[in-house]
Amino acid sequence: MLRCCAVAATALVTGCGSPYYTADPIDAQVVDAETGKPIEGAVVTANWQLVSTSLDTGGRKLRQLEVMETTTDKDGRFHFPGFTRINFTLDELREFLAGQFPKFWLPDAFEFIEAIPRTSAGKFKKSALRERFKDYRLADQQNSF
Question: Do 123 and 98 fall within a single domain?
Answer without folding.
Answer: yes
